[in-house]
Design brief:
three-stranded antiparallel sheet; 407 residues; mainly alpha; extended; 51% helix; 4 domains
């Protein structure tokens, strides 16, 4: 690291007076003996009980400052910025500044250097980009996670979307919804250019962007769009969550749990009734028939032993109540493995869980499957037998679970 800084210093000392202002900018960005670490862009030095602390001043998604404190450790501050806020030292900005100086050294490239300086992002624009990272990072993380195909995603869709909406909501936002088709580009600073009677719009790179209030506008627009597209009144969509032993306590939507439990009871009863009517009959003499044939006349219809075939309503709900009373399991556990272990304990609910939890939250896995199929069924394989094609696809998608693909 020190060798790199020394090399950069040699570059800067060779810069002419003509580019001294550029040199100052590079030194300011890189940091020298008179410039503090880059983390002080996001931390304030505060004295508490005669001891120096670094207090994080990054604005969170909800508009409040973080306030996390660290004592005499810029490494902890840097780690906090990276892990909590997704902020790292801006290497891109440094490299652009160095390029700016390098171009200025060559008279033939000085024009490019001036143009680069002209269109270079301002400090306010860099700060806006840094503050947008934790906001847009929510969507990137949700897209990446919900697009997975090797774990349960449907049950986590509602909790994730509700959390994003809550994080985007600002105090000043009214509950009014908008027509998302009328949303304007927040970042577009446009000018009208007339070229050969052709009027068109283009981005004005020469004029710095007015960043004041843009972050709040981005949050507000995203919040309204989420409220427009994501409706939370469909109780059916919450069933996968209550069937997932990781999130069934509904900490994310406590106001919905009673309705969802009632719906689950109805689904549970339907599934139990279907399993009862679909049970195959045998020729084996039942205890009730034996009791009738052995001890009573044809004038009496036996009903005593029916108590074992028709449990009380309390017993009908015991399986469901027992499941709801079971503590949640850690989120990094596999729900399917849990249900496989507990399928005999909860036979009816486990069938419901297999039905709902197997659904993918997005179409991404199926699109990947079609893509794999297209790659395998190429122009030179169009006469492949359908059954053979299905087996090849099965092996390709499940080879990690097989010791060998050879019989």
């Amino acid at each position: 690291m020190s060798a790199r800084v020394n090399n950069d210093a040699e570059v800067l000392t060779k810069v002419s007076d003509k580019t001294s202002n550029k040199k100052a900018k590079v030194e300011d960005i890189r940091g020298g003996s008179n410039i503090r670490s880059w983390i002080w862009l996001y931390f304030d030095s505060v004295s508490i009980n005669n001891e120096k602390y670094a207090v994080c001043k990054v604005e969170t998604v909800k508009g409040k400052k973080c306030g996390e404190k660290y004592k005499n450790s810029t490494s902890n501050c840097s780690r906090h910025l990276s892990n909590v806020h997704g902020i790292t030292e801006n290497q891109l900005e440094k490299y652009i500044r160095v390029l700016e100086v390098e171009l200025a050294k060559d008279a033939n490239l000085d024009k490019d250097s001036k143009y680069l300086t002209k269109i270079m992002l301002t400090k306010d624009e860099w700060d806006l980009l840094r503050n947008l990272i934790p906001v847009l990072g929510l969507f990137e993380e949700a897209t990446r996670y919900l697009g997975g195909s090797k774990y349960v995603t449907y049950s986590t869709m509602n909790p994730i979307m509700i959390h994003i909406i809550d994080m985007l909501k600002l105090v000043s936002i009214s509950p009014e919804e908008i027509n998302v088709e009328n949303i304007k580009d927040i970042f577009a600073e446009l000018e009208i250019c007339v070229d050969n009677n052709d009027t068109h719009k283009k981005i004005n790179l020469d004029k710095p962007m007015q960043t004041s209030g843009v972050l709040e506008k981005v949050k507000e627009t995203l919040y309204r769009a989420m409220r427009f597209y994501w409706k939370k009144d469909n109780i059916e969509s919450y069933l996968p969550s209550i069937l997932d032993p990781r999130v069934k306590k509904f900490d994310f939507a406590s106001d919905k749990i009673k309705q969802v439990q009632d719906l689950l009871r109805a689904r549970y009863q339907d599934a139990k009734d279907r399993s009862t009517t679909s049970t195959p009959t045998t020729n084996t003499l039942s205890p009730a028939s034996y009791f009738h044939n052995a001890t009573v006349s044809s004038f009496y219809k036996p009903t005593l032993l029916n108590i074992f075939n028709n449990p009380s309503p309390l017993n009908l709900q015991s399986e469901l109540d027992e499941y709801l009373a079971v503590p949640q399991i850690p989120f990094d556990s596999d729900p399917f493995m849990w249900w496989n272990v507990n399928k005999d304990r909860f036979p009816v609910i486990s069938r419901l869980a297999r039905t709902y939890l197997a659904v993918s939250a997005t179409s991404t896995p199926s699109e990947r499957l079609f893509s794999d199929g297209g790659n395998m069924m190429g122009p030179k394989r169009t006469r492949m037998n359908p059954e053979f094609f299905k087996r090849l696809m099965f092996l390709k998608r499940n080879h990690n679970f097989l010791d060998s693909i050879h019989p």
